[in-house]
Write a structure and sequence with these properties.
- The protein is 31% helix and 23% strand.
- By secondary structure, the chain is of the alpha/beta class.
- It has an eight-stranded parallel β-sheet with strand order 6-7-8-9-10-11-12-13.
- The longest helix has 18 residues.
- It is globular, with a radius of gyration of 23 Å.
């Protein structure tokens, strides 16, 4: 692929202009096609991609800052399509989880920063509304969203418990209030409602009223219910997402295949959770990603629980999700990474990212030579959001010196010798 250049080209100039403090030059990064390039960012977008050294000097202006990415693979940044910000990091709490606004805001902010450090520059957080917590948890997560502006994009899904019958009237009112407050997606768990189909109908009605996407939790173990959902969701825009759908893989192959075809025809996306579900240890198991992909369903991967009671060791790391899709579920490294980047961004309604001129500067640099290697040993990372470096993680391995390593010329990262 030829080097991409900004369009239109800048006007000619006899000498370089002043440094632009908002621009950034990423030097010597490797791309997945094997090229080593420089990438110039400005105004939150990729301005130019050229062979290594071609953008380092000259031109009409100089960059405000440079980052040496020699030894790093440069990728579109991941996105996190399934997080639980209100309960994140609560596994070690003594007693019931606190829903005090300051506690929820602190956990939501810390969780988003942890996920940002892993590379996720956009996070969709599912937040419970109604019942005891009312709208307090949602208000706290929305406050965290405002505090994180410029670092990461945090969007919220309002999740009421019951939406049908006498008890559901309050839940429906709270759901509408949640959207007015700032929740940008409506969702919940229809499987827990006495009338799951009625629950879905109520959610779709609110989504249609406000033009919101829908994101529903379901184990997907009832094919008849899924068929009804697909029929109802087919005409809804901007779209419907289901997760984690772990029981879909336990259905007979013919039934699962037919259900996947129905979801694909309706344009329903599926977010799988290969690192573990978010409803307890008895509901573990990822959706059948290869079956769904073969049917034409858009499949993204999320992290689910982040160190809460559902998964006290959850990492919230999209590269771990991609690693598991490649190592356990038969996807190629490229397919697995797309599930946490390109497909995840599409599920969130975000614009496509490529390492080419004109695309959003949402990038992740990971130390390594190729995609398979970075998914295996994704330690050192540099995260770019809106054209700025917003997180950096560095890891250095050190070994005690040995004759074998010297004789064989093995690569070393250590800054010195261990004594």
């Amino acid at each position: 692929m030829p080097d991409s250049q900004p369009q239109p080209p800048p006007p000619p100039s006899s000498s370089p202009g002043p440094a632009d403090p908002s621009s950034l030059l990423l030097c010597g990064a490797r791309l997945t096609d094997g090229r080593t390039v420089d990438v110039r960012l400005g105004g939150g977008r990729i301005e130019a991609v050229g062979t290594a050294g071609s953008l380092a000097a000259g031109g009409t202006r100089t960059c405000g800052a440079r980052v040496d990415l020699g030894g790093y693979l440069l990728l579109p940044a991941p996105a996190e399509p399934h997080a639980h910000a209100d309960t994140a990091l609560s596994a070690a709490a003594q007693g019931p989880v606190s829903y005090e606004p300051q506690d929820v805001q602190r956990r939501a902010t810390e969780a988003a920063l942890l996920q940002l450090g892993h590379g996720a520059t956009a996070v969709r957080a599912h937040v419970r509304v109604g019942d005891v917590q009312g709208l307090g948890a949602l208000a706290a997560v929305l406050q965290a969203r405002r505090a994180l502006r410029g670092l990461a994009e945090l969007t919220t899904v309002a999740m009421p418990r019951v939406l049908t019958g006498v008890a559901g009237a309050d839940g429906l009112a709270v759901l509408r209030d949640a959207v007015k407050m700032g929740a940008s997606v409506v969702g919940g768990r229809p499987d827990l409602d006495p009338d799951p189909t009625g629950y879905v109908e109520a959610v779709l009605e609110v989504a249609s009223e406000h033009g919101c996407p829908v994101d529903l939790h379901t184990d997907a173990g009832d094919p008849a219910r899924l068929a009804r959902l697909a029929a109802m969701a087919g005409g809804l825009r901007p779209g419907v997402t289901l997760s984690p759908c772990g029981d879909l893989g336990r259905l007979p192959a013919e039934v699962a295949s037919r259900t996947a075809d129905q979801l694909a025809a309706a344009g329903v996306a599926v977010v799988c959770l290969p690192q573990g579900g978010c409803g307890g240890v008895d509901r573990r198991g990822a959706a059948p990603v290869r079956l769904l992909r073969a049917a034409g369903v858009r499949v993204a991967a999320g992290s689910g629980a982040l160190r809460d009671v559902s998964n006290p060791v959850g990492r919230g790391d999209p590269l771990e999700a991609a690693f598991l899709l490649a190592s356990r579920y038969g996807l190629s490294p490229e397919e697995a990474y797309d599930a946490v980047s390109g497909s995840a961004r599409a599920v969130l309604g975000l614009p496509e990212v490529r390492v080419e001129a004109g695309f959003p500067a949402e990038l992740l640099a990971v130390r390594g030579d190729g995609l398979a290697g970075t998914l295996s040993l994704a330690y050192s990372r540099v995260v770019v959001h809106r054209g700025l470096v917003v997180a950096r993680t560095s890891a250095v391995r050190e070994y005690r010196s040995s004759a074998a390593s010297v004789e064989l010329g093995l690569p070393r990262q250590g800054r010195g010798q261990l004594s």
